[in-house]
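Support request, please re-run this one:
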Amino acid sequence: MLSHFWRPVRLLTAAALAPVFAFPPNVSAQASEHVVSPQDLNQAAQNATRIRQQNLDSLRSFLSSPQARKALESAHVDARQVQNAVSGLSDQELTQLAARANKAQNDFAAGNIDNHDLLIIVVAIAVLILIIVAVR
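Re-run finished. Output below.
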């Protein structure tokens, strides 16, 4: 007799709780609110691409300068191989090497370093590029 009483209670409880578990309340909140909007993601991707291209251009320009070509030739390093290897660098490696190249170029233009120092810097950057790409 006791089981006849509890059977409808269990059935009503299950019927009342089924919609609650079928549609959790935070699903609608997740659909309408994003932590980062798609526009922000798109803008960040465009900025990263722009910065990478600037670093590539900066490093390639440094390595194609007459002083750099002369330094690479005197060290018997293939300039085309170095130029091709530049595009294989990660964003972080590219940023670091572009900053070093810009600093060396600015120091050379300001007269803070001479041709010999620039030669050493160019060869060091070229060797770093080739090593990084070869390790991958």
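Residues 39-135 form one domain. The first helix runs from residue 2 to 22.
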